[in-house]
Amino acid sequence: MNLQPTWPEPIVRVQSLSNSGITAIPKQYIKSSSSRPSLAQLARDVHIPVVDLSNLVSADPSLRDETRSLVLLACREWGFFQVVNHGVEHALMGRAREIWREFFYLPMEVKQCYANSPVTYEGYGSRLGVEKGIKLDWNDYFFLHYLPVSLRDEKKWPTLPHSCREVLAEYSNELVKLSEKLMKAFSVNLGLEEDYLQKAFGGEEVGACMRVNFYPKCPQPELTLGLSPHSDPGGLTILLPDSHVSGLQVRQGDDWVTVKPVPNAFVVNVGDQLQVLSNARYKSVEHRVIVNSAKERLSLAFFYNPNGNILIEPAKELIKEDQPPLYAPMTFNDYRLFIRTRGPCGKSQVESLKSPR
Ligand code: OGA
Ligand code: NI
């Protein structure tokens, strides 16, 4: 199945809307009353677990075990955690954020050269989902493929700002290394061989892509969302949020809690493919983004994914008589068509993959 080649409606850049000085947002962005954010929640930033990764590769096995158990606990209780001492240079993180902020500040004609289409989503975009009339989110984004190398098309990466491609390649390379470290910890925490999940994702042929989110100031933040509730369809996500403004909210039961970013930390979360592979021992947790009228916000979401052509299903090693496989096998290419067609829809997709019993 292929996605249609064009968007169903003319694309409006949220940044242009925001800059135009409107005081009321267009109706496509107004969420139904039950989906609107309660902005009182913004004032209640919470500290999700912060895990110091410096000992994850320690020569001392007891220090490694200790770090892995903290990761496990965070995965169980939150599905989200922040990591510090992750091995990525802070200066590089800062450069990556700055480069992308500069990109979004470029004149519209320049950015339009990268306008994306629903076929691959690569490039400059302003909507997720191709159904006519769907509610839209208050963000613009840039999406690109990094791995496998066969899907990497640097021609589609911005040439401006000048060092953009270079910084992007360096940053992505570091994030792949961090993802590999985390994947090992996730494997061992399931009682599997260290390289189990990496192999299940396709070994050398794993996928990785990046979505840079730009959330402009919004005159009526109480009526809309920067990104609607969703779980990430892929393997694991490493998010670099802006440090001076919150916006990411994570579901905890019936509540949405706002993540308070720790300076120089990444926010890590489990995606649907790890929920499937782990037969739901890991849960991908729903999250969303709220916006505000005073400050814009930028975030870099790096997605580490299975190769698109491999069938992903619960690991045989985790299937027991009293723990039957919960999900039917599916390739990630097929899986991701759902969010690309319908837009963010909470956890409805991974739920729909439940095999009939
Ligand atoms: C995403 C996402 C959160 C954020 O891009 O999938 O959840 O804070 N982003 O921008
Ligand atoms: Ni997400």
TrEMBL record:
Catalyzed chemical reaction(s): jasmonate + 2-oxoglutarate + O2 = (1R,2R)-12-hydroxyjasmonate + succinate + CO2
Domain of life from the UniProt record: Eukaryota
Keyword Lipid metabolism included in the entry's annotation: no
GO biological process: defense response; negative regulation of defense response to insect; regulation of defense response to fungus; regulation of jasmonic acid mediated signaling pathway
PROSITE patterns attached to this UniProt entry: FE2OG_OXY
Pfam families from the UniProt entry: 2OG-FeII_Oxy, DIOX_N
Record keyword Cytoplasm present: no
SUPFAM superfamilies in UniProt: Clavaminate synthase-like
Domain Fe2OG dioxygenase: 205-306
GO molecular function terms attached to this record: dioxygenase activity; jasmonic acid hydrolase; metal ion binding; oxidoreductase activity, acting on paired donors, with incorporation or reduction of molecular oxygen
Cofactor dependence: Fe(2+); L-ascorbate
Keywords per UniProt: Dioxygenase, Iron, Jasmonic acid signaling pathway, Metal-binding, Oxidoreductase, Plant defense
Signal peptide annotation: none
Family statement: Belongs to the iron/ascorbate-dependent oxidoreductase family.
Protein name: Leucoanthocyanidin dioxygenase
Organism expressing this protein natively: Actinidia chinensis var. chinensis (Chinese soft-hair kiwi)
